[in-house]
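Technical appendix A lists one of the benchmark inputs used to test multi-chain prediction within the project. The record comprises two sequence entries:
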Amino acid sequence: MRTTLPVIVAFLSGFVMVVSFFFGGALGDLDDNALQWVTIVGGFTLVLGVFSILRVNGKVVAKRGRDWPYKLATVISVVAMAIPSMLPVSTNTVGGRIFYSIFPESWGSRMGTGPSSIYDWLFNYIDSPMMETMFAMLAFFIASAAYRAFRARNAEASLLLITATVVMLWRIPMGEALLRLFSDSLPDYINMYVMNGFNVSVQRGIIIGAALGAASMSLRIILGIERTYMGKG
Amino acid sequence: MASFWDNIQNIDRRWIYLLVAGAVLFPMIFVANFPIELTPESLQLYNAIDALPDSCAVMLTFDYYPSALAETEPMSVAALRHMFRKNMKVVTISNIPLGGPSIAERVTREIAKEYGKEYGVDYVNLGYKYGYVAVMHGLAGSIERIFPADNTGNLLRDLPLMQTVKNYDNIKFIYVVADNATLEYWISIVNAQYGIPVGGGVTAVMAPKMYAFVESGQMIGLLGGMKGAAEYERLLGILGTATRGMNSQSMVHLVIIFLVIIGNVGFFFSRQDKGKRNG
């Protein structure tokens, strides 16, 4: 049953979407309802994810296990972001009326996810700068990696090296000015032949190949041949 | 003992980091503005928005994480300025749970204030709903069915703008700003199946892939990375963060090219030396 039921659900869901795509309206509102179920089920998976993080990290903190201070930071962060964002912002709802009968109504502007809420403040002043910092550090690693790895060892590597250098120059105003010293049309040629020529032809091949792969994988799932999503080989 | 040419191939990474840091900071102190040349793709996007009727409704997506803000936020800001200048009604949405809705909230309110636009009348932030494929399909039927309330909890039925914008039929253009694969879904689902024009901007890493969709006509215009955003700013006649950021980006690109060249010079001569030694 644990295997059969998911296969039946996958088959029916896939069947509904395929039929409604090729024979629009043949199944009435069934495809719309199926899509709404995706959103609803997805919402539950997010909740499940939050509980899982709290459970796994909470256990380590309770036992003072390895790296427990970091796990504690994770738990505090999840709670600090999630709880205020889920609390009601006004007395318009039943939950809101109960909440604000206990707490002052002026707290309303701090709840939810709107501007001036706790969630918004934490996001804009802690989460966002930290993520930006992490990403910005990539520039240093890319520079170091490019210096060490980009070597004209053979014809293919040389071709890649030349193309990368030319495109890097083309993507910056200083580089464009430099390229125009050789020929006024050089930046336009790079856009036309490198980006819209070689690049597009290769990208199209990759996109079509990936789409065919996705279609065959979907068919395998719908027909119950592919079962790795259930943790089975 | 390692030769000079071997050493030149193995510069300590800390010197490289210092060089990159200097390349970022130097143009901030000594500003040298080089002209920003336009690409046909950014011009196509600008013209597409410009050709839309004034006061029509458009959708602007904030499908990006905070990590890519330096490249993507200037695109959103420039797009909003263009739309508000034309008095367009803007519906924003995000398919990214982490950050997207909050960034949309902050950016739209900031730009709307400059243009004296009112929330609920001139723009609405729908926020985020799980499952972008389902959301994109669902919006074709009814926006209110997928988003009964906006990002801050206001019911859609209470917002005047959403009385006229019910589904894709009421939206003239979808301007996607993304740092991930959602743009491909906007193209393959919304453009291909519902016929809504889609255009937008992506990070520089993603741009090469998107050229294929521009070339095929499935996407109208493309902004690639900070350079794309700077081009759009130039078209709007504004000096935004992308234009200012291009100086630092230019210097870092030049530093990387310089490092690659000296690495290869070292590689070439060291190989020649080894060849001579081995007879």
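Chain A touches chain B through 60 residues (CB under 8 Å). Residues 186-222 of chain A form the longest helix (37 residues). Comparable benchmark entries are summarised in Table A2.
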